[in-house]
Predict the 3D structure of the following.
Amino acid sequence: MSGGHFDYFHYKLGAFSEKLNDILKDDDYCLSPDIITEIKKAINKSNELAVYERRIDWLISGDDGEETFFERLAEDLENAKRLEVK
């Protein structure tokens, strides 16, 4: 099955994070350090939410069982943590 219950919303969250990253790289925005910090927080939270959406989606769709859900959730959250925007 590979999910689909939530219409693969994690891809939309990923696209949102990418657009925020693009904004941070674009000098035309002239953002203050405080705003940059908050945008980085939003990117990281969006990425974490995408992990939860994907794992719950697979659980609800029957691709993962409860035990596998927790194992994969922990692994995916750890991977997301390593990719955090600092």
Q: What stands out?
A: The chain is about 70% helix and 0% strand. The mean pLDDT is 92. The radius of gyration is 15 Å. The chain has one domain: 9-82.
